[in-house]
Amino acid sequence: MDLKRLKYFCKVMEQGSISQAARLLNMAQPPLSKRIQELEAELNVSLFLRNGNNIEPTEAGYYLYKKSCEIFRQIEDTTRETIQIANREDRVLRIGLTHLFQSYFRSLFLELHQQNPHVKLNISVSDSSNLESYLHDGMIDIALIQKPYRYDGFDCIAFAPVPLVAVVSHQLLPEKPAGAIPYLDIGKFPLLLLHRARDAGTYEILLDHFRKGGIYPQVMMHITQPTIILDWLESGLQAATLLPSSEVDSSKLRHCHVLEVFPSPLVFFPSMVKMPVTPYMKEVMELIQHGYPFPLSSGLTAEHDTAASNRG
User: Fold this and answer.
1) Given Cys at both, which of 47, 102, 128, 233 links 146, Cβ 3.0 to 4.6 Å?
2) How many Å apart are CA 87 and CA 14, to the nearest integer?
3) Residue 310: its pLDDT value, please?
4) Lowest pLDDT segment from 25-39, 90-104, 114-128, 293-307
5) pLDDT digits (tens, 9 = 90+) for 243-259
6) pLDDT at position 303 over 90
7) In sequence order, what DSSP letters do the residues of 42-71 get, joined into one string?
8) What pLDDT sits at residue 118?
């Protein structure tokens, strides 16, 4: 069985579309369709049900995809370990870290280094949408990001949601409220909101909650990094924001109030994401299997979502 055809088949399965898979593979659609037909002819089975431009995997297609992922994982492991033995290289973990949860995952990286001092950590810090592309392109092995709005064939382990907090400039709100501030009241301030570089995410969810309450806020700026938002608010920008509580240290903010919000919608979902053909990193799994954040908590909820066609 030709491995290249199997790779093409897996990409079509993960994308749920021959045209989308062809684009990601940087090839024309007709040759890709022909490779899939050749694979079906070799096996003498139908791997997809075709209805015009739409395709759906058959039961045989699902089975072949699962077994193909195992094969490619074994090939990748064997290749990497052979090269490491030949070159006496240290093990390298290629991890993507989103700006959104830099503080949330800090203790994980520190513990990972402490328990595995001879492992090299190659960490790429970027926007969640960029890191999803890095996964597709094989530039990183796992990504610690906001739970994908659309899975694109990812495997995902989601942690418990991080509560949101409001950060409001003293110039807009001179006196700190005694309790939580109503969510809709935040929408009456000029806002700086987190926004992904591409596709939908937390920004759209936050606005949707406002609009359902009849509030259409003025969003002054869209920014991908919480640290920049906090820095600008502290520097005197008269605005407010909504951020994951893990990324806000009230002791470092002298010119802003940090407020609990009620009701507090669940918006921020840290997660560990990888492609199905990539193995989970044993060093990372050993750390989180008893619960993360540290110390032991009930924060980990496993969702092994290999969603080739359902994008939730």
Assistant:
1) 128
2) 34
3) 36
4) 293-307
5) 999 999 999 999 999 99
6) no
7) HHTS--EEEETTEEEE-HHHHHHHHHHHHH
8) 85
Q: Which residue has the higher pLDDT, 2 or 308?
A: 2
**For the chain, what's the residue count?**
312
Angle, alpha carbons 129-135-138 (nearest 5°): 140
What gap in Å lies between CA 132 and CA 92, rounded to an integer? 20
Q: Are strands 92-98 and 142-146 parallel, antiparallel or unpaired?
A: parallel
| Rounded Cα distance, 190 and 19, in Å | 42
Asked if 159 contacts 300 with a C-beta cutoff of 8 angstroms, the reply is yes
Global pTM reads: 0.69
- Amino acid residing at 161: P
Q: Which is it for the CA torsion 198, 94, 64, 289, positive or negative?
A: negative
Nearest-angstrom CA–CA distance, 119 and 94: 11
CA dihedral 235, 237, 243, 248 (to 10 degrees): 20
- Residues 177, 259 contacting (CB under 8 angstroms): yes
pLDDT of residue 138: 87
Rounded Cα distance between 260 and 177, Å, is 10
CA-based nearest residue to 126, from 153, 152, 146, 151: 146
Please give the domain boundaries of the chain with CATH numbers for all domains: 3-66 (1.10.10.10), 90-160+269-303 (3.40.190.10), 164-262 (3.40.190.10)
